Amino acid sequence: MFSRRKLSGRILVSQLMILAVTSVVGLVLLGFAQRSQIDHVNEQRALSIAEIAAADPQIVAAMSAGDPGRGPHGPVQTAATRIMNAARARYVVVIDRRHVRHSHPIVGEIGQAVTEPVVALDGHDHFFIDNGSRGRSANARTPLRDSSGRIIGEVSVGIDERDVVPSLLNELSVFALYIGIALAVGVLASYALAWRLKRTTFGLELEEIAGLLQDREAMLHGIREGVVAFDQSDKVSVVNDEARRLLGLGTALGCRLEDLLPEGRLRRALAGELGPDEIHVLTDSHCLAINRMPVVLHGRALGAVVTVRDRTEIVGMLRELDSVRGLTDALRAQQHEFANRMHTLAGLLELGEQEQALEYAVELASTDRTQAAEIRERIANSLMVGLIVAKCTVAAERGVRLTLDPASKLGAEPGHLRRLLTVVGNLLDNAVDATATPALGGGRAASGPAEVELLIRESGDEITVRVSDNGPGVPDEARAHIFEDGWSTRPDRGTARRGLGLAMVHRLVTRHGGEITVSEGEGAVFTVRLPLPDTEPAPLGAVFIAAPPVPPENAAAAGNAVGAGNAGRSTTAGPNSGRTRW
After folding, report:
1. 260-310: per-residue pLDDT in tens?
2. How far apart are the first and last CA of the chain?
3. Residue 38 lies in domain
4. Which pTM was predicted?
5. Are 500 and 485 in contact (CB under 8 A)?
6. Residue 464's CATH number
């Protein structure tokens, strides 16, 4: 029944039980203490009566003369009875050195010897509680001396227990009144405490609170999503294991963000300084989607809850999907171009112009040189070749000419291979976007044909990647933010989220001891330098490769398709150009 009561009722009943038990225990202990005190007072009173009797001249004279008298009318018995009645003592007994009583409340005991020792013969006063044959009493004994000071006996005085109990009950009744008042105050305080606790716990009962705690712990440690909660003072109050893993936090409870994370976009996103919308932040190992929501309950602000989701693989896959879509569109256009050529050949043959058809076929064959082989003259790694061939196809379809600098040189197994694929892919994507004509969806502002030049050179101590274009360049006001994740001058395109490529490249390069720079003015030139040897081969950021590399066995086919598609665009290399073009 107690467990089914409400929280306020439990607190009230518990407090009443505690107060009642403590009050009874306190009253009992107080009774023992007061009884001990009253016994001590009565012992002192009995000692005072005994000293008065020992100083009585009639008793001293009779005991000194050796004629105390026997019976109820002897001088010692008469004086002792008088003192006993006046002091309201239980008894006044005078005993000589031979242990013989000369006064006693019971006349028959006069002249009889006592069985217990006559302790006052040592010359000292003695007092104690005596549990004798006549009941419990406070007893005091003092030596009886003659006029010369010689001890001739003792005087024993007792105070009846019946005089102690009424006094004790009288004092305890006062204390009981005080305890009753304290009990009433405790009841009111318990009721106020129960009301306050119920308001603090929003009316939840103990079982509900325990259930919520269990559910919270199970949820926090069971979900694959980071959760960080902040209290009203912006201190971390809740953090689960996934949040610690994604954010690199240790023991974060009770700490502020400035004590946990350095200044940067990640800390500003967690603090809610970047706005209420979902924020994407790049760290050294993850691409995180961060969402901060304030917590308000019954009109009271309780803090905020931040959810952190790992979008590394998803963003990488979306970027690859977007690149594959661009490549698919380009190949589809190449298919139409190839069909047009076949129709031209079929028409010439049908008209009987065999010689002209042969000349046209030879011309096409001469322009369809295997560009993958030309790339391999300078780039020996198959993955890098496939990536460049795939990028050239997309660029050509958007009206952009890619040029490989003749100084390019890369071995079959270069250092930082995974990182190079990411860096080259993202920089080429940005350059193509910047130089594509408006009709093809770009933002080109510079005059002349759209061109992008790529340089990859491997030397003894570093690998250099330079991507230059003749687009509008990087605005002066954007230079301070160009490498921040989430920042972009263009809206999202398809499935790929803008503002992550350059930020990821910057983190990737600086993390491995390299540097990235961007030129000023019209036409952007991005230069990346990665030191050699590659001391950290972990493929960090590999999932962000902006375009899927073409397998080596398909590189030639892709190059042929590109060359065929560009035959009518004057984008093939001239005989004296000195550069490989697509």
Report:
1. 888 888 888 888 888 878 888 877 777 888 899 988 877 788 889 999 988
2. 86
3. 7-167
4. 0.49
5. yes
6. 3.30.565.10
